[in-house]
Amino acid sequence: MSRDPENGAVHDMDAHEHEAPQGTQEEGDKGEDAGDNPTFSLAGPGASNPASNAYVGDLYRQYNPQYGKEVDSPTWSLAQPLPHIVRPGMQHGALPEDRKEDKQAGQNGHGPGPDKPRSKDDSQGSKDGFFNTWSKFRHKIREPLAEWLGITIAMTIGLCATLSHYTSSGEAGSYTSQSLAWGFGFMAAIYVSGGVSGGHLNPAFSIALSVFRGFPARKCIIYIAAQLLGAITAGGIAYAIYHDAILEADAKNKTAQNAGLAAAALLTAPKSFVHPATAFFTEFLGSAILFGAIVALGDDTNAPPGAGMQAFILGILISVVVLALGYNTGGCFNCARDFGPRLVAVMAGWGGHLFRESHAWWIWGPWCADISGALFGALIYDMAIFTGGESPINYPRRRRKRAVQVRAVNLRKKLGMRRKKDEDIESSSAETCR
Asked: Which residues cross the membrane (predicted)?
């Protein structure tokens, strides 16, 4: 606040920060992220940069002349983004061809501009932005590679923690520790792949995002293939690392490898006393809770977490769900988590009967239950809370039917099952709304 010396009036300099938004409540909510409305954060103001409000004494800089000065050299710190530099080998002049080209240009009386690439390789690479073959290839498959790498990391950590617990007969770890390993393994994987592919790391989640958030169906298929490949990779790595421990545990217990403790670690299956309906709805409920929370965390009109915190929260959530619901079925909640190690076990010689156990559990459990659970979780959240137009729940009735009919027509075209005369979509949709 400030006082006018001439008339003594008091002016509130920050009054605009507390004015009520004009228009509807929805319009007011739109400007909240832009700073038009006060932010009711439990973290307090300046939480994104706590050091910005630090007190600096009057004489502090006099006795600490280096404080606050900008650093001119790059810092390779694990606590902040790494610097982007041009390495000496990439700079012009590092190759003999560069120097030869400069010499020829000097003899001709004109040299290349300071901002233009001078070597032949550089000029070829600058046309399309790629300087080697792998860079061009990686650009095309970067998202699937991120999904593959992410789920490989997550499942390798989770499977190794579980194998450590089982093969050591509980000496190395516990059920709680392996649940935490699964949660924080996926947390690390989301940090690795989230900025490139989104870090789905679960076929059920990719499918649910396609249905309720408009994720492209064609890309969804590619993601699922990459996730399954990553799960197979993780299963192979975990089995290879713990192969000796598996053999030792089986020798002590005098059991076959495919019926030993390692089978319970690598694969998921309902306990012998658990009814099939109970097993199905255990997986269904866990997936519904997980994906319902995911769409809630991604809803910017609700209460999204701060920058960089979403993966951490999901890691904790996965650990809690595995702890709470994992006992009955082994805590799968991910189609790829069971399929990859199961296929690796079959390739390792455990027998093809693994795909027939518990009435083909790998189909109706990790696939059917988890996918339907993720869809149900998104459905409940959208029906109760979400107001965005990307969800089919919020479509107008006519547009909902039109979307279904368009998909049906496109599917018939792809399968070569076109009718002699397709019904008019627009007129059919209009009739539905009458």
From this structure: 145-167, 179-199, 220-242, 277-297, 309-327
Average pLDDT of the segment spanning 405-409: 76
User: Does the pLDDT value for residue 366 go beyond 80?
Assistant: yes
Q: How confident is the model at residue 31 (pLDDT cuts 50, 70, 90)?
A: very low
pLDDT at 217 over 80: yes
Give the chain's domains with CATH numbers: 139-392 (1.20.1080.10), 395-432 (no CATH)
Rounded to two decimals, the pTM is: 0.76
Q: What is the 3-state secondary structure (H, E, C) of the chain?
A: CEECCCCCCEECCCHHHHCCCCCCHHHHHHCCCCCCCCCCCCCCCCCCCHHHHCCCCCCHHHHCCCCCCCCCCCCCCCCCCCCCCCCHHHCCCCCHHHHHHHHHHHHCCCCCCCCCCCCHHHHHHHHHCCCCHHHHHHHHCHHHHHHHHHHHHHHHHHHHHHHHHHHCCCCCCCHHHHHHHHHHHHHHHHHHHCCCCCCCCCHHHHHHHHHHHCCCHHHHHHHHHHHHHHHHHHHHHHHHHCHHHHHHHHHHHCCCHHHCHHHHHHCCCCCCCCCHHHHHHHHHHHHHHHHHHHHHHCCCCCCCCCCCCHHHHHHHHHHHHHHHHHHHHCCCCCHHHHHHHHHHHHHCCCCHHHHCHHHHHHHHHHHHHHHHHHHHHHHHHHHHCCCCCCCHHHCCHHHHHHHHHHHHHHHHHHHCCCCCCCCCHHHHHHHHCC
